[in-house]
């Protein structure tokens, strides 16, 4: 054994790898990846394997790992080898990702990009909120002590989170959009929720992330989801798009060039209030209003 896997040459580009070059992969929009993955898989089938897989009668939940076991029976390499090879080739693609937050003007992302968690900048914002919002007047004498004693100060330092599907974020993590940074929520506590909700507008930023900025482990995890979902749709035919809870943790800033848009959800679910829906008072920001005026 020379240690090489049975995919002809994992790590070196194969002709089919080129289908991913500069491709924008958006989980929810299967047209962006389903056909490309079918092309990519073309040389991996056992003789007649593709047709046999399509005829399988399988009644499995969308996220059941048995979809991959079903695929494995009809391809030559192991599924783990396919996942490894796909993770390498996906580095050429861009992943459509989303970042939920709360800002006064989303134009800042189009001008400056998104920044990693920086406790110094967040401390400054905490001071600003406490100074400007009379709801937090009682915190003014003690805000410096709160900052000095904040034991979770470094909880997310240097990290930036984006996700591949905004639906789970809107359904289960609405607090990032309702109250903003989790860091601020932790520092200021429940009593600040009303003030945090007055600051800025709930915003979902859209980013076409060069996928090689994510770790190989993250790409492998996504490759697993993609192969499983491809198999399910190939067997079941046209079907719903499942909401995928998938985060990418970056340790770098995101420059403005890859920020492709933003939106402001009109309604959010509050996870601290049994997912009660809350309507956004004004789902616009100066950037949207300015763009609408042209
Ligand atoms: Zn806006």
Protein model, in words:
The chain has a domain at 22-93 and 213-246. The protein is 38% helix and 15% strand. It is built from 13 helices and eight strands. The protein has a four-stranded mixed sheet with strand order 1-2-4-6. α3 (66-72) crosses α12 (216-236), α4 packs across α12 (216-236) and α6 (119-132) crosses α10 (182-188). The radius of gyration is 22 Å and the shape is elongated. The protein starts with 23 loop residues before the first strand and ends with a helix. The structure holds zinc ion (ZN). Zinc ion (ZN) binds next to α13. The site of zinc ion (ZN) has 7 residues, from α13.
How is the secondary structure organized here?
Layout: E1 24-25, H1 34-41, H2 49-54, H3 66-72, H4 79-89, E2 94-103, H5 107-112, H6 119-132, H7 143-149, E3 160-163, H8 166-172, H9 175-179, H10 182-188, H11 193-198, E4 201-210, H12 216-236, E5 247-250, E6 259-263, E7 267-270, E8 276-279, H13 286-293
Bound molecules: zinc ion.
Zinc ion binds at residues 106, 262, 264, 284-285, 287-288.
């Amino acid at each position: 054994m020379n240690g090489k896997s049975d995919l002809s040459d994992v790590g070196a580009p194969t002709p089919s790898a080129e289908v991913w070059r500069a491709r924008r992969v958006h989980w929810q929009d299967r047209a962006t990846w389903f056909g490309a993955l079918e092309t990519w898989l073309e040389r991996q089938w056992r003789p007649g394997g593709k047709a046999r897989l399509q005829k399988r009668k399988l009644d499995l939940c969308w996220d059941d790992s048995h979809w991959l076991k079903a695929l494995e029976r009809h391809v030559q390499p192991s599924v783990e080898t396919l996942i490894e090879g796909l993770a390498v080739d996906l580095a050429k693609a861009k992943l459509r990702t989303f970042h939920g937050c709360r800002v006064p003007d989303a134009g800042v992302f189009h001008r400056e990009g998104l920044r990693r968690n920086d406790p110094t900048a967040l401390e400054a914002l905490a001071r600003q909120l406490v100074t400007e919002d009379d709801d937090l007047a009682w915190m003014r004498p003690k805000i410096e002590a709160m900052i000095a004693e904040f034991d979770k100060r470094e909880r997310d330092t240097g990290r930036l989170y984006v996700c591949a599907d905004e639906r789970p974020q809107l359904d289960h993590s609405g607090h990032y959009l309702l109250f903003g940074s989790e860091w601020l929520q932790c520092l200021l506590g429940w009593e600040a929720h009303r003030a945090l909700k007055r600051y800025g507008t709930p915003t979902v930023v859209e980013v076409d992330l060069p996928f090689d900025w994510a770790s190989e482990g993250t790409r492998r995890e996504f490759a697993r989801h993609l192969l499983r979902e491809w198999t399910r749709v190939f067997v079941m035919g046209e079907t719903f798009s499942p909401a995928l809870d998938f985060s990418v943790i970056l340790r770098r800033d995101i420059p403005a060039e890859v920020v492709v848009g933003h939106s402001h959800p009109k309604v959010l679910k509050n996870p601290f209030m049994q997912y009660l829906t809350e309507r956004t008072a004004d789902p616009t920001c100066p950037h949207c209003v300015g763009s609408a005026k042209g």
